[in-house]
Design brief:
CATH superfamily: Ribokinase
Helix content: 25-40%
Order of helices and strands: EEEHEHEEEEHEHEHEHHEEEHHHE
Number of domains: 1
Number of helices: 10
CATH class: Alpha Beta
Strand content: 15-25%
Shape: globular
Length: about 325
């Protein structure tokens, strides 16, 4: 455990990215568009989670794969943010993902590239690092997509490896990686509504359908499930019940990374022994603080604390 008494959280990102966010008012598909401003942030879901964990004043370390060709930019960022780095370098370069923000309509268009191409040897090397980290850390977040060359069941393997050493794993992925990952029964998962529908095999249109799907996942052994609903908030469930969480209304600058901020705040709450409702409240406040920031930046802790009192948590079904 960390020397300052806080449990250091570990995030695992197998497919990191440099997120290039461009702001184009009245973005038009098939037309010439002119960029008003841009920024580039080190990203990938696990790294985004780590940003917010650190912004909340909590210790965090990161691991996963980084391409040797552009790893320096990530390493400099980790050092600047006091994020402990255990990334494994592999051949190639991390992808550059493009986020097009129309700041008039509020719509965000994401163009995500495939990313690194990793080998079985790379995965074995990462497993060795993760096994070592599991000897000293309890909370792990595995987040994002799988890089090319890595089998769909890889998250399941990592979850099983971590759980053998008593660690608790929060999985945030989608598609086959999520479907295969939950077979290892992680401690918690955070699909959005579309991802939950893909997992169940059909679109979920009513809140009663979402709650039924969540109940099935809990019955399968997962301890806690968060289903994010965009600006409408989230449904959060665990042994303490099923909660409807509604964020305060804000003007969003960029919604990219909001789900990652939700995970970060929630896991920080878990390490502090907070109730399910208070973990949900902290996660929602962190997510709300992040969407008013440009790019994929974390909201400042001062803003998160201010938003905490504006998050509404209820145990009954709300209008959907």
């Amino acid at each position: 455990m960390n020397n300052n008494g806080q449990q250091q959280i570990v995030t695992i990102t197998l497919n990191p990215a440099l997120d290039q966010t461009v702001y184009i008012p009245q973005f038009q598909v098939g037309e010439v568009n002119r960029v008003n401003e841009q920024r580039i942030d080190p990203g990938g879901k696990g790294i985004n989670v780590a940003k917010v964990v650190r912004a909340l004043g909590h210790p965090v370390c990161v691991t996963g794969f980084l391409g040797q060709d552009n790893s320096k930019r990530f390493f400099e960022y980790f050092q600047k943010q006091t994020i402990t780095n255990f990334f494994v370098e592999v051949a190639g370069a991390a992808r550059v993902n493009i986020k097009i923000v129309d700041d008039q309509s509020g719509r965000v268009t994401e163009i995500n590239f495939p990313g690194l191409n990793c080998t079985g040897q790379d995965l074995s090397g990462l497993e060795t690092v993760i096994q070592r980290l599991a000897q000293e850390h309890q909370w792990f977040v595995i987040a994002g997509s799988l890089p090319q060359g890595v089998p769909d069941n890889s998250y399941g393997r990592l979850i099983a490896l971590l759980q053998q050493q008593g660690a608790r794993v929060f999985l945030d992925s989608s598609g086959p990686a999520l479907r295969e990952g939950i077979k290892a029964v992680p401690y918690a998962i955070k699909p959005n509504l579309e991802e939950l529908g893909q997992l169940i095999g059909r679109p979920l249109e009513k809140e009663s359908e979402i709650r039924a799907a969540i109940a099935d996942l809990l019955a399968g052994g997962i301890h806690e499930v968060i289903v994010t609903l965009g600006a409408r908030g989230a449904i959060v469930a665990g042994k303490e019940g099923m909660l409807r969480v509604t964020p305060p209304a804000v003007v969003a600058n960029s919604t990219v990374g909001a789900g990652d901020a939700m995970v970060a705040g929630f896991v920080v709450g878990k390490t502090q022994g907070l109730s399910l409702a208070d973990c949900a409240r902290l996660g929602t406040a962190a997510a709300t603080a992040s969407v008013v920031q440009p790019g994929t930046q974390a909201g400042p802790v001062k803003e998160v604390k201010k938003l905490l009192t504006q998050v509404h948590v209820s145990s009954g079904a709300a209008a959907f």
